[in-house]
Write a structure and sequence with these properties.
- This protein has one domain (about 5-110): Ribonuclease Inhibitor (Leucine-rich repeat, LRR (right-handed beta-alpha superhelix), Alpha-Beta Horseshoe), CATH 3.80.10.10.
- Helices cover about 40% and strands about 10% of the residues.
- It is built from 5 helices and 4 strands, in the order αβαβαβαβα.
- Strands 1-2-3-4 form a 4-stranded parallel beta sheet, with no helix packed on it.
- α3 (about 50-60) packs parallel to α4 (about 80-90).
Length: about 110
C-alpha cells in the first residue's frame, strides 16, 4: 500500500473497502493509516488480518482525519492496547458502527470502550 493506492482510492470514489482475510498484519495497517485521510472511504472492513494491537494503534489516531463511519476489526488478535487506542480515538470520529468480535480485549479493553 502506498501513494498509488491512495490515488486510486481517492479518485475512484470508493466508499467501501473490504480487505477482510488478507493477512495485511500490522505493517499493512500502518501503510493504510498513512493514506486513509486522503480517501473517501466510509466503510472499512479489515477483519481477520492479524493486525494485533500494533496495527490497531497505528490506525486509531488517523480515524479522526477520515470519513469512516463503519469499521470492522473483528478477529485481529486485538487486546487491551488496541481497544484502548480505539477508545481514545472514537469520540473524535464519525464512527457509529464498530465490529470487534473475536478479539481478546478483556474487561479492561471493554471498559475503555
Amino acid at each position: 500500500m502506498g501513494s498509488g493506492l491512495a490515488a486510486v482510492l481517492s479518485k475512484a470514489g470508493i466508499n467501501t473497502l473490504n480487505l477482510n482475510d488478507n493477512c495485511i498484519r500490522n505493517y499493512g495497517a500502518k501503510a493504510l493509516a498513512a493514506i486513509l485521510s486522503n480517501t473517501g472511504i466510509h466503510t472499512l472492513k479489515l477483519a481477520q488480518n492479524r493486525l494485533g494491537d500494533a496495527g490497531t494503534q497505528a490506525l486509531a489516531p488517523v480515524l479522526s482525519q477520515s470519513l469512516i463511519h463503519t469499521l470492522d476489526l473483528g478477529w485481529n488478535s486485538n487486546g487491551v492496547g488496541g481497544a484502548q487506542a480505539l477508545a481514545a480515538a472514537l469520540s473524535l470520529t464519525p464512527i457509529h458502527t464498530l465490529h470487534l468480535g473475536g478479539n481478546t480485549i478483556l474487561v479492561d479493553g471493554a471498559q475503555a470502550l
